[in-house]
Amino acid sequence: MTVDPPSDRSVDPAVDPAEGPTLGAGLDATLRVTGRDLDLRLQVPRGRTLALLGANGAGKSTALACMAGLLRPDGGEVRLGDRVLSSSRGSGTWVPPHARGVALLAQEARLFPHLSVADNVAFGPRSAGASRREARERAAHWLAEVDASDLGPRRPTALSGGQAQRVAIARALATEPQVLLLDEPLSALDVEAAPAIRQLLRRVLRDRTTVVVTHDVLDAVLLADDVAVLESGRVVEQGPTTRVLSRPRSAFAARIAGLNLVRGTASTSGASTAVTTPQGLRVEGLTDDSVPDGEAAVAVFSPSAVGVYRDAPHGSPRTTVRARVTDLEPHGHQVRVHTPYLSADVTPAALAELGLSVGDEAVLTVKASEVAVYPA
Amino acid sequence: MSRTHRPRLGVPGWVFVPAVLGAAFVVLPLLAMLTRVDWTQFPQLVTSDSSRAALLLSLRTSAASTVLCVAFGVPMAVVLARTQFRGQSVLRSLVLLPLVLPPVVGGIALLYTFGRRGLLGHTLEVLGLQVAFSTAAVVLAQTFVALPFLVVSLEGALRTGGQRYEEVAATLGARPTTVFLRVTLPLVLPGLASGAVLAFARALGEFGATITFAGSLQGVTRTLPLEIYLQRETDPQAAVALSLVLVVVATVVITVTRRSRSAL
């Protein structure tokens, strides 16, 4: 169902991705919290981003709190690079949160209301012993990094949700953390603000060891290299994002996955941007931030937005793909039609009318307005 | 405080009757006292040697006990609000006991602790300290009765504020002391201010514990409430005038803080 060139980076915890400067250290957390029925192991290789997916109450936030040192697990061990942050072995090890080098970004920005924006960002460097001037310079640097230089003198109460989250990101990064933990960083933002912050996170998380808790499959697709799916305190599935989402084995992953994902290069024509894969598949979509022609891009759309026909429909300007049906599977009240490139959801009645079965050739279409294009 | 007019949603009309009666019950005695003030003699009465000594002593000791309340009450409130240990609720009840205890009982308890024959009296005597019936005793008595006010209001403020900002500060690399000084304290400053004002007001009005533990020596332990009580026997006019001074001081303290902090 998911179209993706076989470009999955291998997920070997011992191997660092060779490209670019990589920040932080690898994280390896084995956690047991009996009170919340949590028992899991999460590994994030240095410089990679792990998305923690799962329903409410699955234990995602508890796991983050354990890694940040805000909650003491009953058992297990948290390692960051070659440092042991907490361990229940022997007499036990416990590194307090302030000495971990682990920054936590929550749903709400939680900016200190009694400090200006600049002083909020300077708080981490100041706490680490930087001089007032040095901390101010670092704050200015990170505010510029998140495109919020002009917000410095303001009070947090005078910021919009998106602005506040920008500042919170700068504040977390200003501490130069070994690991960044994000707890649903976009869920408290309104629909207009979220895409810009997601783009910002994509930029700053690249090559940074990060764990991001999310409900939104789009966050996993766009921010994370790897995905771990949690169900009642256990990891039920873990692996590279594209693999987990294209071949989900857990119920939760199956429910959230199934988005069509087309990776390729961008080309702009009029109001829409097309993504063309090396195999020649071309999908038209809309984008919030313009993607320069020839740049890598990804087109994301739901199978329910895909229409299925026997013959190419005439008229409307939409993406049209001719493909052979590889599989038909029940999906809720609908039937999911799989092809090598895209998947589509149709009603059983429509399927019967089309008379499609595995091996038949079909025409799949999707409107540009249903497709979101992001720089990849 | 917002000054917008809202409709009286859901307040039944009859509620105003007992509310007005209650307010009258508080305000009327003050007005009654005002009618008895001899305005021609007022300046002499409130500036007599004994009056001035009592007023200054009251202000000095109340300020000192407020400082003590802050110095000990803030850590107490933090420990009660932010930690968990066995016997915590029992300890909280004991600490708040002076709120409901008759001050005279507090005075007796202090006497048997710091007095010459008290629990610590001998130790203090060896150290050359004589606490009972000194100005220090006044401060101790006032602190004893005022401390719970600060602890209660500050613990409430700490609990209401929650630990969200403190957690963020810790993950940003701030040590516990830095978190306490740069995050916890600034955020509960309004609660601390109102707690300190309450403590000051309570110390200013302290009578029972003071007279039991510190006695009534002019210029040393005779605070304004004691002076008023004594004058009432010999010179009722002076007592009324001094009472008015106390009312004015208390009103000024409350209004100044209410104006700078909307919540008290």
Q: CATH top level of the largest domain in chain A?
A: Alpha Beta
How many β-strand stretches of chain A? Answer: 22
Number of structural units classed as domains of chain B: 1
CATH architecture field of the largest domain in chain A: 3-Layer(aba) Sandwich
- What is the CA-CA span between the terminal residues of chain B? 12 Å
**Number of contiguous helices of chain B:** 13
Q: What top-tier CATH class of chain B fits best?
A: Mainly Alpha
Mean pLDDT of chain B: 86
**Are there runs of chain A of 5+ residues with pLDDT below 50, and where?**
1-20
The value of Rg of chain A in angstroms is 22 Å
The dominant shape of chain B is globular
Please write out the topology.
The complex is a heterodimer of chains A (376) and B (264).
Chain A: E1 27-33, E2 38-44, E3 49-54, H1 60-68, E4 75-80, E5 83-87, E6 93-94, E7 102-105, H2 117-127, H3 132-145, H4 161-173, E8 179-183, H5 194-205, E9 210-214, H6 217-223, E10 226-231, E11 234-240, H7 241-246, H8 251-256, E12 260-269, E13 272-276, E14 282-285, E15 296-301, E16 306-309, E17 318-324, E18 327-331, E19 334-338, E20 343-346, H9 348-354, E21 361-367, E22 372-375
Parallel strand pairs in A: 3-9, 3-10, 7-8, 8-9
Antiparallel strand pairs in A: 1-2, 1-4, 4-5, 5-6, 10-11, 12-13, 12-15, 13-14, 15-22, 16-21, 17-21, 18-19, 19-20
Chain B: H1 16-35, H2 42-47, H3 49-82, H4 88-96, H5 103-114, H6 121-126, H7 135-161, H8 164-171, H9 176-187, H10 189-204, H11 208-213, H12 224-234, H13 236-260
Protein described:
Chain A contains nine helices and 22 strands. Chain A is of the alpha+beta class. The longest helix of chain A is centred in the middle third of the chain and has 14 residues, at 132-145. Chain A folds into two domains: 27-101 and 177-256, P-loop containing nucleotide triphosphate hydrolases (Rossmann fold, 3-Layer(aba) Sandwich), CATH 3.40.50; 260-375, Beta Barrel (OB fold (Dihydrolipoamide Acetyltransferase, E2P)). Chain B has 264 residues and is mainly α. Chain B has one domain: MetI-like fold, CATH 1.10.3720.10. Chain B has helices at 16-35, 42-47, 49-82, 88-96, 103-114, 121-126, 135-161, 164-171, 176-187, 189-204, 208-213, 224-234, 236-260. The termini of chain B are close together. Chain A binds chain B through residues 68-70, 96-104, 106, 110, 112-114, 123-124, 127-128, 171-172, 175, 181, and chain B through 164-165, 167-176, 178-179, 182-183, 186-187.
